[in-house]
Amino acid sequence: MVTKGSKTIKGFKFSARAAGIKKSGKPDLALIYSEVPARCAGVFTTNKVVAAPVVVSAPRIRRGSCQAVLVNSGNANACTGEQGLRDALRCGELAAGALGLPEDLVAVSSTGVIGLPLPMDKFERHIGQLAGDLQAGAVEEAAEAIRTTDAFAKLSAAEGEADGKPYGVLAMAKGAGMIHPNMATMLAFVMTDACVEAGFLDQALRTAVDGSFNSITVDGDTSTNDMVLVLANGLAENPEIVAGTPAAEAFQGHLSRVLLELAKMIVRDGEGATKVVEIAVKGAAGAAQAKQAARSVATSSLVKTAFFGEDANWGRIIAAVGYSGADVDPNRVDIFFNEVQVVKDGLGTGKELEAKATEVLKTPEFTVTVDLKLGEGQGRYYTSDLTYDYVKINADYRS
Amino acid sequence: MVTKGSKTIKGFKFSARAAGIKKSGKPDLALIYSEVPARCAGVFTTNKVVAAPVVVSAPRIRRGSCQAVLVNSGNANACTGEQGLRDALRCGELAAGALGLPEDLVAVSSTGVIGLPLPMDKFERHIGQLAGDLQAGAVEEAAEAIRTTDAFAKLSAAEGEADGKPYGVLAMAKGAGMIHPNMATMLAFVMTDACVEAGFLDQALRTAVDGSFNSITVDGDTSTNDMVLVLANGLAENPEIVAGTPAAEAFQGHLSRVLLELAKMIVRDGEGATKVVEIAVKGAAGAAQAKQAARSVATSSLVKTAFFGEDANWGRIIAAVGYSGADVDPNRVDIFFNEVQVVKDGLGTGKELEAKATEVLKTPEFTVTVDLKLGEGQGRYYTSDLTYDYVKINADYRS
């Protein structure tokens, strides 16, 4: 799918190197390049401690135009003071020099250890070759080079059409699901050859991030380096996609789907995770309350261990809703595992349906729906099971 | 220490039975009894879904007098509807009958599986023997019987003196530390023979709980069954302890120390935990912000894995402070492992001090101090290391 997707994206090239920033000697430097300046939008960390590459890149992205992104893994260039800022600027300068671009068209991004200075000699030594190696087909190598603790590289792609002109959306991400992914940097880079109006591109990215990366991590628990960028170079030559049109709706759909796919890969990459579970809350007093309740269930260690234990332990779910802060009337709550109702009006529906729910729990991907029956609010979160040894104690607690 | 403490406490008796509520056949029923009605105070779950025993007991405790507490493990009697309420009332009725007490002097408490009806036949069958077995020395058996996933029973004791009259404080708890102890019920019962003024007893309990159990769990992440009770039967015959006196200060000290000791035992009981770490934040803009920042550090999986890896990874600490929501100026933060300063004004102090900090990390109990240098706010949280296999990946990330 990735290859299929990437084929349709005009004007983007990629390269990767093992520059020795990671002690393991694995690839740790990636370059993303567009043959022409691309319109861009970004979502950045909300952490009050902001890493140098974000300080340097965020204002450049906000100016709306970007042609290259230099990404390194192995060192986050965070908590590195003024030297860190100088190093981040120098990274951009090196990439700009090697590519013959103005500096303000280059974004830089880093992930890895905090508090150590960037080994600039390695950037100086490898940037020339990195620029020289750029090719359209090397997206998988780039995705590989931005990994840190990820068990696998993460790529996703989609193909769309705007007024008869085909375009592609291609994205890579790094990040591994954990109980609290609170400091594991999440990076994602989206490339599209569609021509998209600048304001709508920004809005579409925020909508897509809200429904994907912000539905797997705990709000506010962001690393110092988090960054999601979209570059739209317009080489598909479609009429500009503007908000409120069918073409905009379609583009939003593709972008959201691609980012959701990456987000689910991050969930699945939780060490040892065997299941991806959607927690869907409806009937809440409002959308924010629905998301709050869904998040509470999705981040409960005991709920997640029950998923691992394939135990339809709805008591843990109802309790997690109870402490979420969302309005809840315990005597009205309904709970479903896929289509199987295990709780009606706050009480269990019996052993037969619970046995059916256990069958659902044995599948690798399913949905838990909680209906609070109080209003129209809906929200969802994605989570994994907890499979680590220690949680077996909780998973087996009921048996 | 427990035995020593319990000897000095007049008029309290305990008993325990294996009633078959737990499938394991282990002790699951405990009775706490005071020979005379005791003044009492309680702190109860803030979960919006409240288990039946809490619904029944909270108003009784708020009336200020209690003579017996019947506690079962193996079944939480939560999400059990009207039947659950009837069963909780019946439990109190059974204990009152067996002890010859009015029902409103009996509190009931349950912990275990949610959503299943209490096996009332087992209560009916065992209550007589349970009441008959009461003895002053059986506190350890009672503490044993309230365990669920706890690796060990938890008891703590202190001896005090008020106007020349010695008194004792004895407490038991159940609960095991987890990343989020969000649904693992926390129960604690404190017995003292001191004579304590009712309003001050309530205030002293809240102060002690705030500095202990509420400094290890994530605020708001309470189970449906959480309950902390203190019973003061006055048999030490000291002049009534009233607020604002040296005797009150001393009593507060004993109560706080006993509950903190239990809370640390709960932290230590995190499956596989090898270290208990105090996270002390000072210099915050206010006390609430200090506690917020301390909690953020204490609940970060990545910080906790670094403790396990004995890695002085202060970057993870500074980042957890950064996303806590507390005011922080990254360029002013100082961080210490015990007395060893690893961060000054937001920057690392170098390899030599980091090596010294690593020595601190090798000890089983230490303090991480974060000085935000913004104001006078102080707060602390207690946490454990994360030792599970999966986190080894994060613990080894830097090496």
Automatic annotation (TrEMBL), chains A, B:
Pfam families recorded: ArgJ
Cellular localisation: Cytoplasm
Residues annotated for substrate binding in this entry: 148, 174, 185, 271, 394, 399
EC number annotated for this UniProt entry: 2.3.1.35, 2.3.1.1
UniProt keyword list: Acyltransferase, Amino-acid biosynthesis, Arginine biosynthesis, Autocatalytic cleavage, Cytoplasm, Multifunctional enzyme, Transferase
Domain of life, per lineage: Bacteria
Gene3D superfamilies listed in its UniProt record: ArgJ beta chain, C-terminal domain, L-amino peptidase D-ALA esterase/amidase
Leading EC class: transferase
Family: Belongs to the ArgJ family.
Name under which the protein is recorded: Arginine biosynthesis bifunctional protein ArgJ
Organism of origin: Desulfuromonas versatilis
Organism taxonomic ancestry: Bacteria, Pseudomonadati, Thermodesulfobacteriota, Desulfuromonadia, Desulfuromonadales
